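User: I'm new to structure prediction. If I give you an amino acid sequence, what do you actually give back? Let's try with this one:
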Amino acid sequence: MGGSLPMRVICDWGLNALASVPRDFVVVVVDVFSFSTAVTVACGRGALIYPCPWSGERAAELARTHEARLASKTRDTPFSLSPSALREIPHGTRMVLPSRNGSAIAFAAREAGIETIAVGCLRNAAAVSRWIGERSAAIVACGERWPDDSLRFAIEDWLAAGAIIFRMPHARSAEAEAAAAAFERLRGELAVALRDSLSGRELADAGWTDDVDVASELDADDLVSILDGDAFRATR
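Assistant: Good question. You get back a string of structure tokens that encode the predicted 3D arrangement of the chain. For your 236 residues, that looks like this:
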């Protein structure tokens, strides 16, 4: 039989998902609270963001290597993991952004030889769908962590993955179909769902309700941040 294989989209959770991703697939890393939202906001302001799976001295050394700032562990500066604060990041800033979920998975995807890696969130879901185009894609929902470091389901990542998949004409895996259905069901209640999620309540309790609000803004950004060499930068 002739003809090309159908476009496919698959969806799975966490770092281990990378092991089953075909190397010719586009990988979209979805970590709504807060890595992928933070990268989307910062790159939209003209920053370059370096993913980093480490903290401490190794992260500081990576920042020195790239003549970049190391993101602060506090969220009240424009150089941190806070999407609301990153709206003030100066154009052209280079920043190393450690995160044990989204940043670590993006870094691992590059190390695994995946050629095309982007970040996705609710803010740029439609833009990511358009950017994927006719390529097959793996949407990796990063999830959160329980105190014992095991993977925790994160409804915010599932909904953002679904928001991307929902607009794609691709053949869907069962998991991708379920994510798209979840988004379709809660599309009109995203802000409520994110505020009521476990991760959203944790951020609010820490005084970062603004980050929840910024992350909930569906299709607010028309840019896609892709990993170009060692850093994410915005493209259309």
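You can read the tokens as a compact description of the fold. Here is one thing that stands out. The chain has one domain: 8-235.
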